[in-house]
Amino acid sequence: MEKNFKRTLVTTALPYANGPVHIGHLAGVYVPADIYTRYLRLKGEDVIMIGGSDEHGVPITLKAKAEGVSPQVVVDRYHHIIKKSFEDFGISFDIYSRTSSETHHKTASEFFRKLYDKGEFIEKTSEQYYDEEAQQFLADRYITGTCPHCHNERAYGDQCESCGTSLNATDLINPKSAISGSVPVMKETKHWYLPLDKWEPFLRQWILEDHKEWKSNVYGQCKSWLDMGLQPRAVSRDLDWGVPVPVEGAKGKVLYVWFDAPIGYISNTKELLPDTWELYWKDKETKLVHFIGKDNIVFHCIVFPAMLKAEGSYILPDNVPANEFLNLEGDKISTSRNWAVWLHEYLEDFPGKQDVLRYVLTANAPETKDNDFTWKDFQARNNNELVAILGNFVNRSMVLTQKYFEGKVPSRHQLTEYDKQTLSEFVHVKADMESYLDNYRFRDALKEAMNLARIGNKYLADTEPWKLAKTDMERVSTILNLSLQISANLAIAFEPFLPFSACKLRKMLRMETANWDLLGSIDILDADSQLSQPELLFEKIEDSVVEAQIQKLLETKKANELKNHKAAPIRENIDFETFTKLDIRIGKVLECQKVPKADKLLQFKIDDGLGGRTIVSGIAKHYNPEELVGKNVCFVANLAPRKLKGIESQGMILSAEDADGRLVVIEPADGVKPGSEVK
Length: 679
What we know:
Strand content: 15-25%
Helix content: 40-55%
Number of helices: 21
Shape: flat
Radius of gyration: 33 Å
């Protein structure tokens, strides 16, 4: 049975503050959360949206060490970049804070201490890798070695990024400390564990029986974990960056980031509402909704609820509408490979087009399966939908009103059957959109809003008021009144999805606010009210703009290939006598020209110190002939002559093949005379 809540608390996954945010983050978590929150605000409901940066953990300490700065410097830099990106894209947090704040440290520490005092943890001693040179225990990411599966020599202690296999640090062959490079030793260390197995019966009932309405991807992943059986999970680790474990004998230990981060939702709410935060976290009439990506499902559906249940006074999430992953041009988005569209860079290349990206990411949202973002689809949706349907309809309605009625909303007269039929097509828009939005089906809700624009576009095209203006201005008045009322509906319907464009449209229509209750009404605008000057809501994106983005990605891919390039294996050994038979000499290029009807071949006239020779070489795609004239080159002088395109080639010019397949002629140092032997 549907429960009526007094208020809603929306949380969004805390992005990791060791890099900027990209379109995958936006599509998976932040745009859906913002749509939902804006929708509830439009309805006049009590809702707050909580966000913040996750600023603890090993990757941050690794980045700080690599840069030679403190972890605080790293998180300060990226927290501000991330926060600004969200502000620029209209993600309307009530607070966006951070886990390095004093409030968070205090809240996380008190949370741990309460569970500790209640006896909810298991204390265990285990052996872990220790760096004797650096005198510290090593987190999994601080250990590198050879992967036992694919033999990648740069695998981490938790995962091999070459083959993707999850690892334990003890699985690595030839492990080394990433701090000192020394070979680590095993040493005993004490940690505290949350016994998830204790809460398994409760979680099975709460998720598998009481929340069958959860999205299938969320429910399925939870069931899989529960069916495998839950195990105790460490809540502390040996590290000097994070929230210190608040018990005696825990020097050098901090709360494990998975335990500390979700408490950030609580501490950030405290920071926002120091006097009333408990209403949102402890009152059963509050609806708690976590917006996350699929990699966080287990933490928010199993681990965090077990923590809250163990504490005893908190509410549990009503829903966790996790999305799947968004890929980019057919490849998985990867921060380490720079295979991403970064939000701050997008705004540099597409200023003022936040809503275009919000629209495309929602229309193509990975709600039930992984989806793919392509720049061609981005362009097509902008040009064929935002410009040609939504923008075109609003602009024509406004411009015709300006032309025929001096920019004032004309009166509505007798409705024709076609008018009534058109109006009947969107009478259910409010109920349909609410049904989709209440069930976190944002893609379908957006389609419903765009369908309203399609109805308007068709209505104007079919009624052709510009033709009727010669004979029947009363009819034109009715057509444009209804068109403007549909435009006002669009300003309301699109507000959760396209806040910047909806605001611009409201200003043109002189609507002070977007009142959700009026959605579906044809009496939003009063007759004779003055409109503002029409402006284009969207503009076409040209092929050249999109091609530049595709080229940028191709260059990234090429850079990645070069970075990961491995030299070809050495060929089988030859004996010294065989090698001495090669006669390699220095020659000077006197002439060079392309060989007719041969794309790859260049013909050289070489000064070899012995009267000169002709050599044909397959490097035409890598050099223009004039670039090579006057250069000294190395060539094999005693290669048997052979004919190429009818030209006798008397030797071979030596080139090196670069990682990207480019051939580079080997040049000796200046001052070496033609004919000199290479020894």
